[in-house]
Amino acid sequence: MTTTLNDLIEVDPAPEPPAKPVKAGLLDPRQLLRSVPDALRKLDPRVMWRNPVMFIVEVGAVFTTVLSMAQPSLFAWLITIWLWLTVVFANLAEAVAEGRGKAQAATLRSARQDTVAHLTDGRDIAAPQLQQGDLVIVEAGQVIPGDGDVVEGIASVDESAITGESAPVIRESGGDRSAVTGGTRVLSDRIVVRITQRPGESFVDRMIALVEGANRQKTPNEIALNILLAALTIIFLLAVVTLQPLAIFSKAYQAAAPDTAALDGHGVTGIVLVSLLVCLIPTTIGALLSAIGIAGMDRLVQRNVLAMSGRAVEAAGDVNTLLLDKTGTITLGNRQAASFVPLQGVDPEVLAEAARLSSLADETPEGRSIVALAGGGDVPAPASAQWVPFSAQTRMSGVDLGGRRIRKGAASAVLKWAGVRDAEVDEIVDRISSGGGTPLVVAENDRVLGVIHLKDVVKPGMRERFGEMRRMGIRTVMITGDNPRTAAAIAAEAGVDDFLAEATPEDKIAYIRTEQQGGRLVAMTGDGTNDAPALAQADVGVAMNTGTSAAKEAGNMVDLDSDPTKLIEIVEIGKQLLITRGALTTFSIANDIAKYFAIIPAMFAAVYPGLDTLNIMRLHSPGSAILSAVVFNAIVIVFLIPLALRGVRYRPSSASRLLSRNLLIYGLGGVVAPFLGIKLIDLLIQLIPGI
Ligand SMILES: Nc1ncnc2c1ncn2[C@@H]1O[C@H](COP(=O)(O)OP(=O)(O)OP(=O)(O)O)[C@@H](O)[C@H]1O
Ligand SMILES: [K+]
Ligand SMILES: [Mg+2]
Predict the structure, then answer these.
(1) Which GO terms describe its cellular component (predicted)?
(2) Can you tell me the ipTM of this complex?
(3) How far does residue 141's CA lie from ligand 1's centre (Å)?
(4) How far is CA 504 from CA 278, 383, 394, 584, in A?
(5) pLDDT exceeding 90 applies to what percent of the chain?
(6) Among all ligands shown, which has an atom nearest to the Cα of 599?
(7) 366 lines ligand 1 (CB under 6 A)
(8) What is the CATH number of the domain that holds 450?
(9) 567-610 pLDDT per residue, tens
(10) Cα gap 378→371, rounded to integer Å
(11) What are the binding residues for Mg(2+)?
């Protein structure tokens, strides 16, 4: 190979740096305004009925509109206006949540251009005509026409159009960095890409659809909550309809407020009925539910993670077991050769040369560091060399040079290959392993020459993060192909709960299955084709963007930064989504119950004077009580939009402690808020003459 990594990275500056995707901040008041047209469009009943609670409010608003037109009064019109506002505010919450993604989608679209694909057979076709399996040539300066895997060559690629990261990345055939994304630009060299996407289903297409929320499906949890809310709505509907004294109240109300009495008893009854119903059904959570879900996806997008479904985000919040790779996730991952330890009677030079020869074609970081430590990397490899590449299954790599067969790799694997048992080797391997190092045994034919000591460092801050996970009730498990002693040493240093050593990809799947059979949800990250089955099996499978297409297809999330520790953040975001939904549901229902006690006594005190002692709020008049409650019910939605989008602030602690804390804050807050809010609004409303 003539191109080195450094040649690739020091390329000419990219042709005009593409715009960074918009990273929307918190709620911007202008965003509220900009979303108003969308919110109005969503009033279409065909859209509304998917949200049963708000659909009932809309039907109610239509009903009071008709009543108000039939028998106009200030009271009737004010109620009607505020009922419509309630529906609009709910739509606004959803539109604002979607709007933030739309800005991002617009940037993505502008980054995508009409690209011509140069097929290997010489034809030039438009990118959208590409079929799965087509082979295209992409040269320096050209845009990659579709998603695929590099099958030939190595190149540096500018992926800023999708990741927002301006540093070029290396994509090469073979290994686990072979996937390329349509719409990104090759900066240097030439690669041949085999297209893996189906037409119209490119990664960027899916990304646009995702951030726009166009194909957002309700998650099973959301559907369940919606059913519960609808059931509550029906119960309240029945309760309100069967409220006998309403008719009596209406008459009394007319008597008490004769200046609005241009309407008959039925008009008032209808309007009061709808108002009461809207106040009692769980409109707050009904209005915010979908915004909470979209915002969760959005928070992931802002951290450069694409969740392929809302369900995956929720599953992340419920995860019990986190599987993390050792090398590169828990450790820095640039496992470097630190020293060669020859066996007694072996010339150190002979060991170094064998290590060098076995690593000349080994492109792993380990292999390169061995060549560097042995020196003489410029000495060309013998032409007769037959390379044996490293694989996670064999755990060895090496070279065959005629009669000389050299292998290096995990002790157990190499000793088995060489067919030897040696106490001295065991002793060296143990010493390196118990210090957290990785020993690679080097053998030539049936003779062990010595051991290479690979060093890796646990990333700073890991112990604290795993401590946080534990407080959340999540078990962290380190998975490694390394031997059990090294694994134990690193596991102890990093503070994980458990580890799985000498793990093959099959072992990973088996581990995931056992966890799932115990009723636990499992999350993992992966990048290689090897990882694809395990990624598919896991409840949350985060594929690295640098990984293979197979891995990206199998997982249900993609991390554009390819940072395996991101899994921890993903779990936190999922948890926050679930907690936010729980907190606002609690708030909403507590709120409704409080409203019941605020309005009913005010209304019925006029009919049954005995109830007057219950009328603790001393609202101005029954009409004002009802109007205040309706107004409060509407504006509480707007007040809570920022919280729904940002998510409830949350510190890691056990589920039960979180629950009791949230019940206290949002339950109690939900009970108190309406009393204060309604009283305040009532003080303003009583200034309006005639109510
Ligand atoms: N380039 C290599 N050549 C030979 N043997 C290797 C090479 N790289 C790793 N090994 C050996 O194979 C073992 C398994 O490696 P593998 O990459 O599957 O897992 P790992 O890197 O130890 O852990 P992780 O799952 O976190 O990546 C290593 O522990 C090491 O003993
Ligand atoms: K309500
Ligand atoms: Mg590895």
Answers:
(1) plasma membrane
(2) 0.94
(3) 36
(4) 58, 33, 9, 44
(5) 42
(6) 2
(7) yes
(8) 3.40.1110.10
(9) 888 998 999 999 999 999 999 999 988 887 777 777 666 666 66
(10) 10
(11) 527, 531
